Structures are given as structure tokens and as C-alpha cells.
Amino acid sequence: MENFDFVCPTKIIFGKDTENRVGEEVKKYSNKIMLIYGGGSIKRTGLYDKVINSLKENHIEYIELSGVKPNPRLSLVNEGIKICRENNIDFILAVGGGSVIDTAKAIAVGVLYDGDVWDIFIGKSVIEKALPVGVILTLAATGSEASDSAVITNENGWYKKGIHSDLIRPQFAIMNPELLYTLPPYQTAAGAADIMAHIMERYFTNVRNVDLTDRLCEATLKTVINNVPLLMEDPKNYNARAEVMWAGTIAHNGLLDTGRVGDWASHKIEHELSAIYDIAHGAGLAIIFPAWMKYVYKHDINRFVQFAVRVWNVDLSFEDSEAIALEGIKRLESFFKSIGLPTSLKDAGINADRIEEMADKCTVNGKVTVGQFVKLNKDDIINIYNIAK
Ligand code: NZQ
Ligand code: ZN
Question: What pLDDT is attached to residue 319?
Fold first, then answer.
């Protein structure tokens, strides 16, 4: 096991009706805030009215910024930064999924940064401070409600990039599984693929003697695999929603990383897909992750055997280790298909004519490698996109 620091200060407020406590929580930080949300789902579901009532009851002034799009855009981040500065806003409340939360985090950083916030995304500068952010989560997927990252798309060239810092972990995350009842099945499924990907990025490591986190990863994966099909049948199954929602936070709050080095190649390869083709991040991962596995499994067959046996219950009667490893990958792919996700570029209606461009962007024109489990160069990434065709 490697040395590690682990910090996850986000207060989780989990369960039925917890959204009504938002004003009380926000009041601990500010009485003048920015309220950010997306394309209107929170108005249709009635959540918006509950939030406003709770803010008003607690005498909190708010300025709204709406219209966050999936794969959130830099232009709205810049607009938010300007509004916050002009109005002396010192707290940001995000109500929505990962796109809304990431927009809030990027604004929180940008308000206190003396320069172009995109500098931080391209590594020209680092995060030194950020406004506090609070969250009401409406989609179990990204783990952004407690993660140290935010991912934003710059429309100027369609670059999708992330920032990382413990300073952008939200102060609190209100998580009521009932708020997810209105999700379209495709978003529930894409969210599940993202949760699973966050675990698998950590699971495939070269670090040895990480038994505890291996087992935590396997348990969290199995929880998602067992509960998501129940949600496909009944979106209002509270217990299944609760299990998947909590798994989403655990998958990406850093706990499953402790003592190990994660891979993250599949995420980087996927981000180029969703940057250009604007598909849901989780759907992109359902396409890329199995392709990545098929390309790298020989690097450590035993790890893939462990994954197949412990997570997918593959029995050892297969002829050899390679057959067991491949069966595990096949079961992952079948699971994604069974919940309605694409597992190839073709399934997602994407023709393969921009593979070279995506591989270039992913490797900064071939200058860097991607991933830790296996370090992939531009040609490797082209091969993975080709497997995903
Ligand atoms: O915009 P609204 O109207 O709210 O609708 C959203 C959106 O259309 C809808 N939705 C959300 N909650 C709903 C709902 N519809 C009905 N009922 C509800 N309860 O769902 C759609 C997708 O929302 P979005 O926020 O885009 O989805 P998600 O949470 O999957 O976020 C994806 C973004 O997060 C990034 C992804 O790359 C992508 O840009 N990620 C962020 C990470 C992080 N910050 O730690 C890590 C991830 O790996 C990921 O990269
Ligand atoms: Zn992800």
C-alpha cells in the first residue's frame, strides 16, 4: 500500500425531505448567494419552489444563474464569475447533477482568481482559494457532490478539461433519493456507468497489497450492479435509489483511492468523445471502458481474473485465466447493454471519422501519455477508439 492523505470534509445530509433543510445549512455560510441550476428539471419537479421557500424562511438573498447544459460550458462559468463579483456573492448553491455542480465549483474558483479561470484548467495556474459551495444533488453519477474535481468544456475549440483541489470539495451535499425519481431511464443508466467507471479507474492499479480497497471497490460495484436493474423496472424504488446514490458518492470521494494509484485513461479518452459529440459522459464510458479493458488486460491478467470472479461471479471452470478475464469484460459489456447503454461508437450514432483528432487532443498532440495502469500513447489511444467502433 502507498502512503496517502485522505480528506473529505463534505457534510452529507442524506434521506427523505432533507432538501427542506437547505436554508438552514446555507445560513451558516452566507446570507447572499448565487443559486445555480440547469435546464429546468428542478422547476418541473417542484424542487425549485422548496429551495426558494427554505432560502426565504432563512432570510437568504439569492441571485439565480440557470441554463447549465450537460457537458457544461466555460461561457456560463465566466458569466457566473462576473455576476458574483458585481454582487459580492460569497457562497454558491448548486441544485442539479454534475454539470451544475461543476459549473458552481468553477465559478467558486474563478471569482477569487485574478486572471482567466481557464488558465487553471490548462495547468498554467493552480487553485489557491475558492468560495464555499453547497449542493442539492438530483442525479447519482459523477460524485461531484463530494469530489475534488470539476470538468468544464471550452467552446472555443471544444476542449473538455478538469481541475482538482480539496479546496473545491463542497461544504455540504443534500441527498434525497426521492429527488431522483424523475430521472429518465437513460440518465439513471448513464449515471450508473459513471459510478462504475469511477470505481474501475481505481481498481485497475499496479499497486500491490491493497486488499481493503479492492474489497471496498468490489462491494460498491456489486451494489450498483444489483440495484440499477431494479430502477430500470421501478424508478421510484426508494431503497435501490438510496443504494445507488450513496454508492455514487463513495465511488468518487477519494476513499476508494486510499493507498493506491488509479488509472484514469478511460475518463480522459471519454472526455474527448463528450467534448466533440456532446453525449452523456456515462454513456461515453460504457463505450470506452470495455474497449480499454480489451486493449490492456494482458498487462495484468490476474487482476482481470479477480475482477471477473469477485465482481461478475465468473466461475473458474473456464479453460484458462485469459478466458476468465475476457468473460469478466464480456459481462461488464452485457450489463451496460442490458440497462440500455451504447457499448460502441456505432450504437451511439458516432461515425469514426474524428479518431485521430480526439487522440491528438487527449495526448496534447502526442506529447504526453495517458493512464497509469498502462501508459498509453497516441497510437494506443487510436487503437482503443478503433476497438470501440
Ligand atoms: O439541466 P436539467 O434540466 O437539470 O436536466 C438534467 C440534464 O439534462 C437532467 N436531470 C438531472 N437531474 C434530474 C434530471 N432530469 C430529471 N430529474 C432529475 N432529478 O439530467 C441531464 C444530465 O445532467 P448532468 O448534470 O449533465 O449529468 P451528470 O450528473 O452525469 O454530470 C455530467 C458532467 O459531470 C462531469 C462529466 O464529464 C459531465 O460533464 N464529471 C464530473 C466529475 C466531477 N466533478 O467529479 C467526475 C466525472 O467523472 C465527470 O467527468
Ligand atoms: Zn466520470
Answer: 87
What CATH number is associated with residue 297? Answer: 1.20.1090.10
Q: In what order do the strands lie in the sheet with 61-65?
A: 11-14, 172-175, 133-137, 92-96, 32-36, 61-65
Asked whether 102 lines ligand 1 (CB < 6 A), one says yes
* Count: domains in the chain: 2
| pLDDT value of position 317 | 86
99 in contact with ligand 1, CB cutoff 6 A: yes
CA separation for the pair 147, 285 (Å, rounded): 18
134, 149, 179 - which closes a domain? 179
- Which residue range(s) make up the domain with 107? 11-179
The answer to whether residue 129 sits within a structural domain is yes
Residues near 84 by Cβ (< 8 Å), separated by ≥ 6? 34, 92, 107, 111, 131
Q: How far apart are CA 188 and CA 185, in angstroms?
A: 5
Q: Tell me which of 179, 195, 229 is where a domain ends.
A: 179
169 & 314 share domain: no
Ligand 1 near 151 CB (within 6 A): yes
Q: 259 and 189: one domain?
A: yes
**Three cell numbers written together for 87:** 454582487
Cα(94) to centroid of ligand 1, in Å?
A: 12
Q: Block means of pLDDT (10 residues each) for the chain, length 389 residues? A: 96 98 98 97 98 98 98 98 98 98 98 98 97 98 98 96 97 98 98 98 98 98 98 98 98 98 98 96 98 98 98 92 98 98 98 95 97 98 98
* Ligand 1 pocket test target in 151, 267, 269 with most atoms within 8 Å of CB: 151
Same domain, 188 and 168: no
